[in-house]
Structures are given as structure tokens and as C-alpha cells.
């Protein structure tokens, strides 16, 4: 049963079409990675799914309901969360305030969820009162993911979660991603350097110039020589 | 020696005018950082509040609501009641202006919003002039004797102490609102990163309405306090202060409400102290010189944008 189905979606900025009919599927509680070179349209795909860009053709179906063209605040309420690649935190707010903002649409008590996120990222627990703008790249990424998890989404979308992180930090982030997934959250990742990401993925897609190129299980994509040479740096 | 002996007294005047500039500066700064444009109508929103208070006060006098002066102050219950209602009504009026005009231009560039705010400024000022005329209207007719603080030789009127106290209370309230309430935090989040606020599910439209409510209430308070300090109001009241308020906001760091308080105090005090050395007529130039120097030396302002 597929949780998210993107069907032949065409999208872009204004008159500039970036995606020329891209299709992907994310199964419930699966990890899916979309890889591809710079400019392949990976971020555009994320923004289109989340309603920040309106597709000019195709459909997006989430949890058996069409969400094509829905605005982000409505998409959030359906159970999808999105962590942009850059500017994904509120820098002048503290760690705790960033997470509270993640629960903005809730009217009931969310302290249980808050504690779960501090358990998932223990390093943040000691820094609840610290302003996020002053924290390191890895910590910011954890805050950004924590913020997105506050609503206990069915699908978490991560745009380049390990970009600009030192290798050991990137490994920590992927370890956390697997832990989040183990609690039943489906995860859609887009990555430029995607070996780490494909290793943990159930399924992978290769996007190039706004079109689907390859599609396979994560393992098989890693083993695929063409994909390796062209998109994974040999 | 004579000049130096005047300085303590001028410092006190500086703190009083700095209080009014700070309140205006907080409003301008919040609107700039959350809604995203320099609101040139802010001075006239201050005047609007001052005139609504005047209108309500005359109404209350005709209803014979008592206005015997409270303690040493030169005004009483009737005036304070009129001021409180005027603050609320100004907030409503400012939200209406947003719904009618600014909200429709939200997807345009900040320059368009700024230009339209100049239109709002002119419209408001002329509406006030249409109903009340260009001549000054007196808030307070009686003369208040200043008390002398023993030892320092500083003179201050009870009304001026009232202005400073009201400012302190409002600054603390705004700070508590921004720091501890859900809406206050959402306002700071929206100021930080509007796109992420929407992705997070924050209702940014409600954030904008709240920003206007607070901005409008602070404008009205600043306008009324300026009326108390000057004893009279004219339709030009806010416009004349707007440039000092902008200087205060730039000095403190545009978009940072805490910077606006620092900036307001520095501009207020420098303007007053300058009169010991240069003719009073040059007072408005002082704010500009400080603003230009700040823009050259450190364009992000004293406190910068909070990051």
C-alpha cells in the first residue's frame, strides 16, 4: 500500500519548467531516497509535493487522498512534514521554542511528544534554552528534524539532511533517520551524495534533468554500475 | 560650567522623549520584521490614537464622567478611560487598514507596501485635519508645577514620571508577550523565517493581525503620551516624530524590538543634550546625523538582528 504517490508531475518556477513528468512512490513506513545531480529537480520535487509550488500537470496522492495544489498549512495537517535544505530552523528561538513551533497547530498538550524528541536527540536535551542560531550544523539539523516530528507525521521529507556535515555527523543523522523510521514514520530523502542514504533506503530513484532515470531497491541502485559512475561519484 | 550644569536636567528630558520614541520604535520594528516593510504611516497612526483619545475625552466630559486629577497628575479617571478605549480603537482601525490595503498587496515587493504606507500616512493626517482642523487642541489646560529632586537640582513633573512608568510597563508586557506566549513565539518565528513558519503550519495571517494589534496599540499609546508631554496635539504630531523613530530603529538594529528601546533612548537623550551646545532648531538634524553615522559604521545597528 503506497502512502505517497506522485504521478507524472510537471512543475517549476513561473514559466521555467523543472520537472517534466516525474513519478515516485513512498510506501507506508518505508525509506525512499531520490538522488541526482545538482539541478536535477530534487528540491523542486519536494516543494511541489509539499504545496510550496503548484504543479502544472499530474497528481499527488497522500494517504489515499489527492493533495495536488494544496497549500503547505493544509498539507501539514494531513500528516506530512518537511525539512528544507537550508534555513530550516528559527535562529533567534531556543531549541525548545523551535520544537514548540512544530506543534503550533495542536491545541492539546504536546509535552509527551517533546520528551520523545529529546530522547531521540539527547544532545538537544542539554541545550533546551540555547538559541539555535548559535549552534553547529549537525545540531541545527537535529532541531530541524525534531521540529518536523512534533506533529508525529506519517511522512517526513528531508532535503539533503547530510549536506555540509562532517562524515561522522552525517552518520549520526542517518542513524537517527533509521530510528525515526523504526517508529513507523515513512521517510522521503533527496540527496546529492547518496551512498549513505541509499544504504538505509528500501527504494531509490535517480532523477536527472527533471525526469526519472532509474528506479530500484536501495541496495540494487548502489550495486548498479551505471548509477555508480554517473551519480555516485564512481 | 553653565552648560555642564544643564546636562543632568537635559538627560531627564531625553529619557522622557526617549520613552515615547522607544514605544513607537518597538511598533515600527515589529511591523518591519514580521510584515516586511517600513511603515511610513506609523507616525500618523500615533496621531490617530491621540485624536481618538481627544474625541472620546470630550464625549466623556459631556457625559459628566469625572476627571478630577488623580493625585499629583494633571488628568483624571475620565482621561485615562478615554486613552484606554482609544488604544483599543486604534488597534482595530489599524487592522482594518491592513485588511483593506496592505493585506491585498502582501505578495508585492516591500517597496510597494512602503509606498502605499505613505499614501495611508497622508490620508490619515488629512482625515484628522478635516475633522479637527490644523490648529492645536489642548489635552490639558492646567499648568503643572515641576517637583525638584533634592540634591540633584533636577526638575520633573508628575505627568512626566507617569510617561516613563507607562513606557516601562508596556516594554515589560511586550517582552513577556513575545517571550512566553504561543502567539508571541510565533511572531518571532515568522520574523526569523516566514517561509519556514508557513511550512511548520503557523497561521501567518493570524500572526500578521496580532502584529498590527500590538503595533496599533503602541502607536496610540505613544501618540497620547506625546500629547500629555506637549499638552496639545496637532495632526502633524506623529509625522514630526517619525524620522526620530526611524533613526532609533536603525540605530538599535532594524527588526529588533529590543534594539528599538536602546535606539529610542539614545536618540531621545542625544537630541535633548545637543540643545546645550547647538541651537534647539537643529535638534531634528541630530537624529539624522546619528542614523547616517550608524549606517556607515555598522549598518546592522547596535544590537543587530537577533540571530
Top-tier CATH class of the domain at 1-78 and 188-234 in chain A: Alpha Beta
CATH architecture label name of the domain at 1-78 and 188-234 in chain A:
3-Layer(aba) Sandwich
Structural class of chain A: alpha/beta
Rg value of chain A? 17 Å
**First-last Cα distance of chain B:** 45 Å
| Secondary-structure element string of chain B | HHHHEEEHHHHEHHH
- Largest β-sheet summary of chain B: 2 strands, antiparallel
Describe this structure in words.
The complex is a heterodimer of chains A (234) and B (307). Chain A is α/β, with parallel strands linked by helices and 234 residues long. Chain A has a domain at 1-78 and 188-234: Rossmann fold (3-Layer(aba) Sandwich), CATH 3.40.50.300. Helix content of chain A is 36%, strand content 28%. In chain A, the strands form two sheets. Chain A has a six-stranded mixed beta sheet, with helices on both faces. In chain A, strands 2-1-4-5 form a four-stranded antiparallel beta sheet, covered by helices on one side. In chain A, a hairpin with a 2-residue loop joins strand 1 (2-13) and strand 2. In chain A, helix 3 packs parallel to helix 6. Chain A is globular and about 45 Å long. Chain A starts with a strand and ends with a helix. The model of chain A has no long low-confidence stretch (mean pLDDT 91). Chain B is mainly alpha-helical. Chain B has a domain at 29-241. Helices cover 71% and strands 3% of the residues of chain B. Chain B has eleven helices and four strands, in the order H-H-H-H-E-E-E-H-H-H-H-E-H-H-H. Chain B has helices at 2-35, 42-62, 77-100, 110-132, 158-180, 182-192, 194-200, 204-230, 237-252, 257-274, 283-297; strands at 137-138, 147-149, 154-156, 232-233. In chain B, the strands form two sheets. Chain B has a two-stranded antiparallel ribbon. In chain B, helix 1 (2-35) crosses helix 6, helix 1 (2-35) crosses helix 9 (237-252) and helix 2 (42-62) crosses helix 9. The model of chain B has no long low-confidence stretch (mean pLDDT 92). Classes of the chains: A alpha/beta (234), B mainly alpha (307).
